Amino acid sequence: MAVHRELRILSGSANPELAEAICDHLGCKLLPTIAETFSDGEIRVEINANVRGADVFVVQPTCAPVNFNLMQLGLILDALKRASAGRVTAVVPYYGYARQDRKVFPRAPISAKLVADFLSVAGMDRLLTVDLHAGQIQGFFNLPVDNLYAAPVLLQYLKEYKQEREVVIVSPDAGGVERARAYAKRMEASLAIIDKRRDAPNQAKAMNVIGNVEGKVAVVLDDMIDTAGTICSAAEVLLDNGAQDVLACATHPILSGPAIERLEQSAFTKIIVTDTIPLSPRARECGKIVVKSVAGLLAKAIHNIHTESSVSVLFV
């Protein structure tokens, strides 16, 4: 049984700080691994420890540079498979290509499915991730997928605001209503929705607010912040509708393009994110951004998977 295998954790180059934090929670050390790039751009991977029969967890979010980190993860999985690891779990806190989960044009790929096939063939036995953009992506895999929720981590911070002022949880679009409702229920807060119209990829125009935000602290909740156009537009609309203060809350801080400049110039008092994706040096300088770690959450999930205990207890 897996409970008798030796627990091993290793990391690619995408987010080694998160991997180290997970190891601190579990009381173990990262497996020594070489992950380098040759002068021609090819990736070299070498695992410098015995993993035969071990229960191995590979921490590697497929964030920017997405294709590089994805390929590196695939090579690590292949190396572990060829080294006779007992079971290999890919810990992918941020699953890249998740927004390309269906065909929106006649001759377009379903990229999220292709990534699932790639990782499965590379040698992954199960996947551990956080806040998939579309929960249906779990069905792209023919192996176990544990999709954790960052809600316990983010709610701990938000509840501090709830003690002082009345809070309303705001979904930036209709697609995020279910997520916002779950947060609002756990905080015993009210719910509002931003009606928006998307004009082009990575661009969205907020229109009006459905719900009462007047005199309240409005928390705009989303699973990720990419170029920040959507939530910054939402902040302006919320203030126009009488919100006393505006916060942003998201699991994955992608923060591409002009995101940092937009957030700095926005009406947000704080932007609460997690460390599923490491912040760039420029983002770390932004005084509005507050980072809450999911290392403890992932460590509990890894422990439960390793000991064949229930992972669903973490969803409560």
UniProtKB/TrEMBL annotation:
Residues that bind D-ribose 5-phosphate, according to the entry? Answer: 198, 222, 226-230
Bound how, and how many: what does the cofactor note say?
Binds 2 Mg(2+) ions per subunit.
Q: Where does ATP bind?
A: 40-42, 99-100
In terms of Pfam families, this protein maps to: Pribosyl_synth, Pribosyltran_N
Cross-referenced InterPro entries: PRib_PP_synth_CS, Pribosyltran_N, PRTase-like, PRTase_dom, Rib-P_diPkinase, Rib-P_diPkinase_bac
Where are the annotated coiled coils located? none
Q: Which UniProt keywords apply?
A: ATP-binding, Cytoplasm, Kinase, Magnesium, Metal-binding, Nucleotide biosynthesis, Nucleotide-binding, Transferase
**Active-site residue numbers:** 196
- Cellular-component GO terms for this entry: cytoplasm; ribose phosphate diphosphokinase complex
Keyword Transferase belongs to the record: yes
Instruction: Cite the annotated pathway.
Output: Metabolic intermediate biosynthesis; 5-phospho-alpha-D-ribose 1-diphosphate biosynthesis; 5-phospho-alpha-D-ribose 1-diphosphate from D-ribose 5-phosphate (route I): step 1/1
Q: What is its EC number?
A: 2.7.6.1
* MF term (GO), any: ribose phosphate diphosphokinase activity
* Location in or out of the cell: Cytoplasm
The reaction(s) annotated as catalysed by this protein in its Swiss-Prot or TrEMBL entry are: D-ribose 5-phosphate + ATP = 5-phospho-alpha-D-ribose 1-diphosphate + AMP + H(+)
**Is this entry keyworded NAD?**
no
NCBIfam families xrefs: PRK01259.1, ribP_PPkin
Q: How does it assemble?
A: Homohexamer.
- What is the name of the protein in this document? Ribose-phosphate pyrophosphokinase
Name of the encoding gene: prs
